[in-house]
Amino acid sequence: xxxxxxxxxxxxxxxxxxxxxxxxxxxxxxxxxxxxxxxxxxxxxxxxxxxxxxxxxxxxxxxxxxxxxxxxxxxxxxxxxxxxxxxxxxxxxxxxxxxxxxxxxxxxxxxxxxxxxxxxxxxxxxxxxxxxxxxxxxxxxxxxxxxxxxxxxxxxxxxxxxxxxxxxxxxxxxxxxxxxxxxxxxxxxxxxxxxxxxxxxxxxxxxxxxxxxxxxxxxxxxxxxxxxxxxxxxxxxxxxxxxxxxxxxxxxxxxxxxxxxxxxxxxxxxxxxxxxxxxxxxxxxxxxxxxxxxxxxxxxxxxxxxxxxxxxxxxxxxxxxxxxxxxxxxxxxxxxxxxxxxxxxxxxxxxxxxxxxxxxxxxxxxxxxxxxxxxxxxxxxxxxxxxxxxxxxxxxxxxxxxxxxx
Length: 406
Prior knowledge:
- With 406 residues, the chain is α/β, with parallel strands linked by helices.
- The chain has helices at 3-10, 45-48, 55-60, 93-97, 116-125, 139-149, 191-200, 207-229, 240-254, 278-297, 299-302, 372-384, 388-394; strands at 33-39, 49-50, 76-77, 83-84, 101-108, 159-161, 177-178, 258-263, 305-311, 331-336, 370-371.
- It is built from 13 helices and eleven strands.
């Protein structure tokens, strides 16, 4: 084989070759799983988790506010202070009522840039805002490293990013697979050619990684084929995030215990809409996908799974002149899972304040009262039984929060 042909074939190796641990034995149902869903673009939490007790909310949003419970197209009541966007009635409200969903308002990063890219990078790095930044790795990769080094010897830690490019939070010393699932095509390299390429690396330092990459590719293709086979038998219509969620569930149920996926399209400066419209459609697609993921994980596995839904920051409390919202500060995080604690499941948790004009940060946004590193550090501490020193390895110069999410 000529060198030019060799290079061309080498370029077709799947990105999943970055995975360095075996996929031979499937995960046990009882193994903890964590999936991070990053809503890039800063979704408007005030339309999702509606402060129905606040008169100021309705004054600040004459065109896009979600009506109070009991009114036409009104919010779904969660407690005396908060309601849920009506688009989530058949998808996530049942999980909330079953204690498998909670919300943490006034959450986020203390980064004040209000820049999508700067704040996304800051969150994914998971480092303190003070001091210099290292772009060598993100907090999800450090979580994988801590779990791999755990003296209790977890059987296997297999992280995967369900994205075309490895996200910043998954980069680092731990090897991580990545592959986009939105439009998985037939493999560019068929089985016979895969064997030829693998044989070329036999006996080299890349031998295990190359074979691992083709194993991941095969697993993804098998998962997609099974989903397609079910399409004509009462299968949920596969579109947008719903399709990705079903594929992720299959892979995380069998092979991967740390996952990441990002969903775009949340920057709603113009014509955001209220109970219907642009944002409502996105929330509906997302929530249907999350409900699909929960169901597809299976009851036994879902009991040991936590899904965190976060965004880089929130949006302005007041609507703008284009019936939309602008870049804000505090937001609301979602946590889903079959094993949420009684203190969290079916509740609005974390530090909170009354929603009024005086409470606004810089007279425009929600303040951040539940800092993301503290919230996630506390979750990881309880979920994996980590020590304070291990949490510090994941989030340097931080301390685990006291929220009992699991």
